[in-house]
Write a structure and sequence with these properties.
With about 700 residues, this protein is of the alpha+beta class. The chain contains 24 helices and 18 strands. Among the domains are: about 80 residues, no CATH class; about 110 residues, DNA polymerase, domain 1; about 240 residues, 2-Layer Sandwich (Dna Ligase, domain 1), CATH 3.30.1490. About 40% of the residues lie in helices and about 15% in strands. Strands 5-6-1-10-11 form a 5-stranded mixed sheet. A hairpin with a 4-residue loop joins strand 2 and strand 3.
């Protein structure tokens, strides 16, 4: 059904008329998108059909043997279950929309969304009742709700508020992990163990004709016995505002502590949040969605409570399971996690081993990094379970094949992504992904793994530009409607990295092999991690990591940039002495320009995906890059490699004898080039040093 991905799982949308919403979306869908959706649905149907055929060919003996094997796996998984932790997932309620409504009283009681006619970042709960949600084109939102108000994104405000409630979280857990600007994972085990008595907090609210300041006194009967009331005149609306100050008490139990945390967030920002409490972060994240908005839900820390809870939970509620995976499972009559457990043999035989074992673990309510050994858990808990697997940013825009516009967007995305890392205590990552959605909605993602930590715009941008150049060249006449940049295999700020590594200098080979990314630490007996890609449900996506790029080869400017440079040279501008060597000024200036090139309408997405993608570090190690010389495969082996010098990339050569002398010289230079990893064959060597 066209538009089905816009319907359903979002908080506040349970009561919408799904058929009507789907009809309106279909009526306002372009031919390109309609064709894409039909093609996508056709591929899913084909996969379901193949699964059904394979299911019919299974024997009872196969199913029985598989069940016995999985029962042994379940016994091993139970050894990883941790029931002694108190994990909390905090999710701000419609964060971007809530900030705008807080600052503009005229938006509070009307359907509104943040974004543009091209794409919505979020919507308030009034708009969700009409079917308007995030990641939906704004013009479709207008069709669903004609009186919808759309306001542009203001990321400076969102970041400012995010830093405020992050400071609140840090008082409860100094190692809080921010999943994004508006969500956080906390471990309150230690904090609650130290809580010996109830806490009384000062509470400030507002009442009177002025409603500009939040929070408001919803019910006068809720005011405490000892209260201070201070009338003032609001500078914004000119009406009287009464500041009401009283106190509120919070107990020692888990629920009271989390209520206090949410209370402090509202006091500090005027914004509400919802919370999930459970024995692991996966369950806590699921629970945080159950009592939205401005509520909390706690799942008991007993195995019986967890198994019972998961039994009736729809598989779509599990982080990492999206529309495509849901459809494939539904084709096997698997709708709930209880169905997953009951039909574990069939799922295991029809899906990949790693995927089926992950689904089995999910059905049991076991998080990927729960183990029985307390010491090892303490060491890996923060660095593995709670931290994001990847961080990304993408932007949708009017389809264009204009080189200047595309390059400007890429620069802005790279700058914003790098600038967002400190707020999540991330140094950088060792895998870079470029996502491109073309005007016909075909999606391509290209992923490159490197043996250094990408920490700066200067390191990230050349990699992204190179991948964009290659894809644009292959589909040169096709306009692009979305660009996204992702960093994965993340390295945390508290990782034991040397100063050189933190600055982006490559590690030694021994140092590199001894370090593992923040969210990809694995033990041999541990289930795989699930890496959630924001649009990896697109089956026409090219396989990630299917190319290696040779560092000995040049990073050439994108084809459309070559044309631009030629035009500029005709206008009297300086042209490089060594064309296409990528060694001159433009890249050095890129990071500075991109920092000030903020664009509204960007959507950050580092948690939700529409299909499960299993990332195997050991398999990546076999195909991964172990030397920068293997990294950039951008020109043919026969192309000449230019030695870039400080004089602007001029190729220097001494006069030599003709004939055999020239051949010997060429062979000698080739040998030296292979041996000398420090030869600056492209402008990336400003930042990276080869492994010795």
């Amino acid at each position: 059904m066209i538009g089905s991905k816009f319907i359903g799982n979002k908080a506040g949308m349970s009561s919408i008329d799904k058929e009507q919403v789907a009809r309106i979306i279909a009526e306002n869908t372009s031919a390109n998108f309609e064709g894409y959706e039909k093609k996508r649905a056709s591929r899913i149907d084909e996969q379901i059909k193949r699964n059904r055929q394979r299911l019919d060919s299974l024997t009872e003996q196969q199913i029985k043997q598989t069940r016995e094997e999985l029962d042994r796996i379940i016994e091993d998984m139970e050894k990883w279950r941790r029931l002694d932790r108190i994990k909390v997932h905090i999710d701000m309620d419609a964060f971007y929309a809530a900030v705008e409504c807080r600052d503009n009283i005229h938006l509070r009681d009307v359907p509104m969304a943040v974004g543009s006619l091209s794409m919505l970042s979020t919507s308030n709960y009034a708009a969700r009742k009409f079917g308007v949600r995030s990641a939906m084109p704004g013009f479709i939102g207008k069709k669903l709700c004609p009186h919808l108000l759309i306001v542009p994104c203001n990321f400076s405000k969102y970041k400012r508020d995010s830093s405020v409630f992050r400071a609140v979280f840090q008082r409860y857990d100094s190692e809080v992990s921010m999943g994004s600007l508006d969500e956080a994972y906390l471990d309150l085990t230690h904090f609650i163990s130290q809580r010996k008595e109830p806490v009384i907090c000062r509470r400030v609210r507002f009442m009177g004709p002025c409603v500009c300041r939040l929070p408001l006194v919803a019910n006068p009967s809720e005011i405490g016995p000892e209260v201070e009331k201070t009338p003032t005149i609001c500078a914004k609306c000119g009406n009287e505002r009464i500041e009401v100050v009283d106190s509120i008490e919070f107990g020692q139990d888990v629920d009271s502590v989390v209520r206090q945390l949410r209370f402090e967030v509202e006091q500090a920002t005027g914004l509400t949040c919802s919370a999930g409490i459970a024995s692991n972060s996966m369950l806590a994240k699921i629970c945080s969605d159950l009592n939205k908005p401005n509520g909390q839900f706690r799942l008991g820390n007993s195995r019986e409570s967890i198994v019972s809870f998961m039994h009736s939970l729809p598989v779509r509620k599990v982080p990492g399971i999206g529309a495509v995976t849901e459809s494939l499972l539904k084709g096997l009559d698997v709708v709930t996690c209880g169905d997953l457990l009951a039909k574990r043999s069939i799922v295991h035989l029809l899906l990949t081993k790693r995927c089926s074992e992950w689904l089995l673990r999910v059905a049991l309510g076991i998080s990927g990094h729960e183990i029985a050994d307390d010491g090892e858990m303490e060491q890996n808990d923060k660095n593995d379970e709670d931290n994001p697997k990847s961080t990304s940013i993408e932007r949708t825009f009017t389809p264009t094949n204009n080189s200047d516009d595309l390059l400007s967007i890429v620069r802005s995305l790279c700058a914003r992504l790098i600038q967002s890392l400190p707020s999540s205590e991330i140094v950088g990552g060792r895998a870079v992904t470029l996502k491109i959605k073309f005007a016909n909605f075909d999606v391509v993602t290209r992923c490159k793994s490197v043996n250094f930590v990408v920490t700066t715009v200067g390191q990230l941008l050349p990699i992204i530009e190179a991948m964009l150049r290659k894809e644009f060249k292959e589909r040169r006449n096709m306009a692009i409607r979305l660009l996204g940049v992702r960093l994965s295999q993340l390295v945390s700020a508290d990782a034991n990295l040397g100063e050189e590594a933190k600055k982006g200098v490559q590690l030694s080979l021994a140092g590199f092999m001894s370090r593992r990314p923040l969210a990809s630490k694995k033990r041999r007996d541990e289930p795989p991690e699930v890496v959630e890609l924001s649009s990896s449900d697109e089956m026409d996506t090219k396989e990630e990591g299917d190319e290696t790029i040779n560092g000995e080869e040049e990073v050439k400017p994108m084809p459309f940039l070559e044309e631009k440079e030629e035009k500029e040279s005709k206008n009297g501008q300086r042209k490089s002495e060594s064309p296409n060597n990528g060694c001159d000024g433009p890249r050095a200036e890129t990071s500075e320009r991109s920092r000030s090139n903020g664009q509204p309408g960007m959507v950050c997405d580092n948690t939700h995906g529409d299909i499960i993608v299993i990332e195997d570090d050991e398999e990546e190690g076999e195909d991964g890059i172990v030397n920068i010389d293997e990294y950039f495969d951008l020109i043919n082996d026969d192309d000449e490699v230019i030695d870039c010098t400080k004089s602007g990339g001029e190729k220097k050569a001494k006069n030599g004898r003709k004939g055999g002398g020239q051949k010997r010289k060429k062979r000698r230079e080739e040998t030296e080039r292979k041996k000398d990893g420090n030869r600056k064959t492209n402008d990336l060597f400003k930042y990276f040093h080869t492994i010795r």
